[in-house]
Write a structure and sequence with these properties.
Blueprint (H helix, E strand, L loop, with lengths): L3 H11 L6 H13 L13 H12 L4 H9 L2 H4 L4 H8 L1 H10 L11 H18 L2 H15 L6 H21 L3 H15 L1 H17 L1 H17 L5 E6 L2 H10 L14 E7 L2 H14 L1 E2 L5 E2 L12 E6 L5 E8 H9 L23 H12 L3 H11 L4 E5 L5 E5 L4 H8 L1 H5 L1 E6 L2 E3 L11 E5 L16 H31 L6 H10 L2 H4 L6 H9 L5 H11 L31 E3 L8 E3 L11 E5 L5 E5 L13 E2 L1 E3 L7 E10 L4 H11 L3 E9 L4 E10 L2 H12 L4 E7 L2
Helix pairs in contact: 1-3, 2-4, 3-4, 3-9, 4-7, 4-9, 6-7, 7-8, 7-9, 8-9, 8-17, 8-18, 9-10, 9-11, 10-11, 11-12, 17-18, 18-21, 19-21, 21-24, 21-25, 26-27
Length: 726
């Protein structure tokens, strides 16, 4: 366990002679507040804030941040308040502690996605005022990932997934490469344990085999520098495991085809000046043939996280492809420590002085995103998109640089410039040539957008855009259009019900405007909102008409039929006809018709969400269903699993194996031994001795499915087991 003296020694190594009393006081308070508390590992709880504080010293951060690291769980896990922290340690430390403290006022009825979204909103708001909030959170998450083995299996999966999707990319955006890499590798270890173990063994084997070659390349590069009077150092670096795994996935390779990944080991040349970087590049290209299209200049065009370096791939000794990075000492420091490195150079860098955020445009986008996207699912989806690490650099006709994710289109570019330019975009010219709107932009492209006042967004645009901003703006436009349609539909439905009482819609509107208490009965603030709720099947027109009629002393007309056929396009109230035994609405609604979506086929134990359809009740989807991103977030409703005893559900499994005799029989036996029935199977083999299986099986729930997958992985030769949608 890390000791106080170890933390203080580390601080003195980069802040010699500083007064560390504030850190010592924070330690004393943390020890007292966490006294008697035990972690799942069996260690005293104090070990966690101590490790977090030590990680912060490794990031070379200031004393208030380290003190906040020691106190970061104090409010959450003890009786102390933020006000008391502020009184004892000052507003600066209290603000950081508050920023990383989980929200306590989230209702227990909220689903996991809503809770996750609201907690992330709080962190983003905190880091918008003081970046040290996210640095403490990253240190906290890193230590929790290092001790994840003590959590239950389902929690390990959830925490690792969130880390890989949110916190590792955040560390990357901040340029803190060593934390990003460790978070990715730890997440990989728990999300894909079999692949992690096999890949680790194979990578280590190849590193050992390549030792002689690596030393040979390093020696040649050192001689090259010396010959040209350049002082510098040459390093060999190994890609971290998850980046290797991603590369295998990108090129659809298996672990057995690892030899096809040529940059498993790369080389880094560190020199003193920018001029020497370019000179060294020239000498390397003169020595070894460069691979066309594999050169990147991040010195003249730095990444948004301030990363700078020259990247090139050449044909090295024995005609092997090798990747070489060339940078200065300062660039190397920034590449590893990112924004944290600026603490020692710029006082006050982490606070809300906007001039310090010129390299953090992505943060401004996140802040804008959390304000705009109120629905938790949309916010999380867009957040993950905007944290995507791979980027391109394109130019406006005036020469301004626009940073976009890989795969971005002219539509993404247009929405990045301005919402109205995006909405009215009709044509795009790239490098003075007309291109389709789904054209994939490349680094260096000069993009010009033409607009028309008669243009409007297309739903097809949602299939090609990759930025959260473009997606949210397009959806907003359709929401506005859809809302107008639903308001009109709501008016029609209510008018139809009012006629049964010899009342008109105009009468309802007039009376409601005179007496707002009528609307208060329905807990709705405006008439348009009421009509919208009726049109979207969230409020019953029949119920509202009845309540209004009772207030005005009307009875139902004998001339009108009590029950009428509802047209298919507006048959919202059919949702009350046939209750389902499979799922229930969290908010307490009863007797509502549900159906499980065929696009993603959820099974009990999956995280699910409901979507109110027109005339077909509530469609229940898995929360990871890709179709959700194109649906109206206003129609989502929280649902949870209820009774599902003795039912079975179909699941589609995709399995990749090394082909051998008896493989199909072994996998079939593993499924049968797990008490599952095979409905259908397809087998395909290839000339390179691979076998691809598709099984359609019956399962009872998610736990049952996990058991089946685990048993399949035990079969010799199985490389991958994946649950498919549909």
């Amino acid at each position: 366990m890390t000791t106080l003296s170890k933390i203080l020694d580390e601080i003195q190594s980069y802040l010699p002679g500083c007064n560390t009393r504030i850190v010592e006081k924070a330690y004393e308070w943390a020890a007292k507040l966490h006294e008697g508390q035990i972690r799942k590992s069996g260690e005293p709880y104090l070990s966690h804030p101590m490790e977090v504080a030590y990680i912060l010293t490794q990031m070379r951060l200031d004393l208030p941040t380290i003190a906040a690291g020691l106190l970061h769980d104090a409010v959450e896990d003890s009786q102390i308040s933020i006000e008391e922290i502020s009184k004892e340690f000052g507003e600066e430390i209290a603000f950081i502690v508050d920023g990383v403290t989980k929200l306590k006022k989230i209702p227990g009825s909220m689903n996991k996605i809503t809770k996750q979204a609201e907690s992330l909103r709080k962190i983003i708001l905190g880091m918008s005022k003081d970046l040290r909030v996210i640095l403490v959170k990253l240190a906290d998450r890193l230590h929790n990932m290092r001790t994840l083995q003590y959590q239950a299996e389902h929690k390990r999966q959830k925490i690792a997934k969130e880390t890989l999707e949110i916190y590792a990319p955040l560390a990357g955006r901040l340029g803190i490469d060593w934390i990003k890499c460790e978070l990715e590798d730890l997440s990989f270890k728990y999300l894909y344990p079999e692949e992690y173990k096999r890949l680790k063994v194979e990578v280590e084997k190849r590193i050992k085999e390549a030792e002689e070659y690596v030393e040979k390349v390093k020696s040649i590069l050192r001689e090259l520098l010396q010959k040209n009077n350049i002082k510098g150092k040459v390093l060999g670096r190994v890609k971290h495991l998850y980046s290797v795994y991603r590369k295998l996935q990108k090129y659809n390779l298996t672990i057995d085809e690892l030899d096809q990944v040529y940059d498993l080991i790369g080389f880094r040349i560190i020199v003193n000046t920018v001029e020497e970087c370019y000179r060294t590049l020239g000498f390397v290209h003169a020595l070894w043939t460069p691979i066309p299209g594999r050169f990147k200049d991040y010195i003249s065009l730095p990444k948004p996280n301030m990363y700078q370096s020259l990247h090139t791939t050449v044909l090295g000794p024995n005609s092997k492809k090798i990747e070489i990075q060339i940078r200065t000492e300062y660039m190397d420091k920034i590449a590893n420590e990112g924004i944290a490195a600026h603490f020692l150079y710029k006082e006050g860098f982490f606070t809300s002085k906007r001039e310090h955020y010129k390299y953090l445009e992505w943060l401004n986008k996140l802040i804008e995103l959390q304000k705009e996207l109120k629905h938790p699912r949309e916010f999380l989806e867009s957040l993950k998109l905007d944290l995507f690490p791979d980027e391109i650099y394109v130019f406006t006709p005036k020469g301004d640089v626009i940073v976009l994710p890989v795969g971005a289109t002219p539509i993404d570019f247009a929405y990045t410039i301005h919402t109205e330019i995006g909405n009215k975009c009709v044509r795009a010219f790239v490098n003075d040539k007309l291109v389709p709107l789904d054209y994939k932009l490349q680094t260096g492209d000069v993009v010009k957008i033409e607009t028309s006042p008669y243009q409007k967004p297309s739903r097809d645009w949602l299939k090609v855009v990759v930025t959260g901003r473009a997606r949210s703006r397009i959806k907003q436009w359709f929401k506005k259009e859809e809302k107008e349609k639903l308001v009109n539909l709501g008016k029609e439905l209510l008018n139809k019900e009012l006629r049964k009482y010899k009342l008109s819609l105009n009468t309802f509107i007039e009376e409601s405007e005179k007496d707002l208490a009528i609307l208060d009965n329905f807990k709705i603030k405006s008439l348009d909102e009421l009509f919208y709720q009726i049109g979207s099947a969230k409020v019953s027109a029949k119920h509202i008409a009845k309540v209004f009629a009772e207030k005005t002393g009307r009875e139902i007309s004998d001339k009108e039929e009590i029950v009428e056929k509802i047209p298919k396009e507006v048959s919202a109230e059919k949702v009350f006809l046939e209750p389902s035994k499979d799922i229930i609405v969290v908010e307490g609604a009863k007797d509502i018709l549900f159906h499980l979506a065929q696009c993603c086929k959820p099974i009990p134990g999956d995280e699910i969400v409901g979507y109110i359809t027109r005339g077909k009740g509530i469609s229940v989807h898995r929360t990871d269903c890709p179709n959700l991103k194109d649906l109206d977030s206003e129609r989502f409703v929280e649902v949870s699993w209820g009774s599902y005893d003795s039912k079975t559900y179909p699941v589609h499994l995709y399995i990749i194996c090394l082909d051998r005799k008896g493989l199909l029989a072994n996998i079939s036996s593993a499924i049968a031994a797990s008490e599952s029935n095979i409905l259908k199977a397809h087998v395909k083999t290839t000339s390179d001795k691979k076998a691809f299986f598709e099984f359609y099986i019956e399962v009872n729930n998610k736990t049952h499915l996990d058991k089946i997958i685990s048993n399949i992985f035990k079969v010799e030769g199985v490389l991958k087991v994946e649950r498919k949608l549909g």
